[in-house]
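Problem: given the chain below (482 residues), write out its structure.
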Amino acid sequence: MMLVHPPAPLPHRSSFRSTALEDVTPSYETAMDPLLREVQQLFGQQLRVEPLLAISKKLQAEFAERLQSSPQCMLPSHNYTLPNGKEHGTYLALEVGGSTLRVALVDLSGRNKSRRSLRIRRIVSSTIDNEVRNLRGVAFFDWMAGKIGEMLSADRESPDYMQLKEPLPMGIAWSFPIELVYPVHLRDLVEQACERANLNIRLDAIVNDSSAAVLSRAYVDPSTRLAVILGTGINAAVHLPISSLHPSKFGTRQFPTTVDTTHVLVNTELSMFGRRAFPTTRWDEYLNANHMLPDFQPMEYLLAGGYLGEIVRLIIVEATETAGLFGGILPFTLSRPYSLETRTLAAIEADTSASLLSSCRLFQENYSLLTPPTPAEMRFIRQVTLSVSRRSQGYFTAAIHALSSLYHDLDRENLQLADHISIGCDGSVINKYPGYMEKSQAMLDQLVRFENTGMKRVVLESAGESAVLGAGVAVAMANVMK
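Solution.
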């Protein structure tokens, strides 16, 4: 959900407002050129190696500080170990997001390069609409239990799960802070709802989405110690030595008694970092100032999918008012904050044709233009889109470099076990935006080579369906330890 104040007038540079056209009225194409050059300069000036490394250094300092003090970031989970790849079985896995519930059966067959070791046997998605979201008390969990029962009763590959004498183990990946909404113990709520639905289910594992991504990728690739989710928002998890966190981070919890419990999966809440690290433009500052939570998630506001479209929209608004884009008349649909979606940007960026005809049609249809944008207008919009997305990739790369450097500094002993560091990547932007992962990987390689500190290569690896698969791996691990 986008949390924004009602729109306020967008500030412009005075030179745009005071353009007196005394002699020759420039064409729209000519009038847009100065603004485009400024956009390209402002969004591109931080994308060289040295500025990105400087951003990384600032982020590393923030990470180190918040490992010791912050109650909001660098939060130790209750997941201490990573999978060894020997876990087997079929497990029930749930992903609970802000808008979707997904119920799945996950098969684990052991880490093996010659076959698929981790797969979703069956999955059913249900929309968490406003009606469901407004359910009170335990009603939401009863709804969820009903969806679990529907999926299990439809599975034809397995015995009748509804008649099992032994409880069916289940893991849940939560993509939002449900503990802030329901103070009662989550395990009790879920299991009691399943019991009311005549389901014999035991909830053995609860993980957040970024921790699930680490677990799902580590099951397949033992060099994985980090994972990042980059879609509408951004978050990351990293497996760190317990000794690297201040004891106060753990509250009053009891640690596992096994002598080999030396590490813990840390939920970084990465979106909250970077206010002092990332340079911003006037459009970024306007977006932040008009957000209901200004400064709360500075990294997310600059590079995540929920905001890329809005940054481009703000530039389009200025170009319309000051440089003659759309004949100086802003389409009504684009006057609404967050009306320009990042998937529209992705389609425009993927259009490499000289005419940009498909982009013109898409823009006309999506935003109710009486006539399609001219080729020059569409080229302007596409170049702005490229500038905004490239900066997103650069800032993302700096954040990943910083997090990898943190891991490198804090866990050098485990680094000897692999020749590279794998980072599991999930989310619509990192996995679906045209060229995003490939360009980020190229920048990351440049940073590591240029810095030349001995850090091993950092490899971004796709970790699709990580929330569901990670919940399955987490519950498998819990049952091995019993």
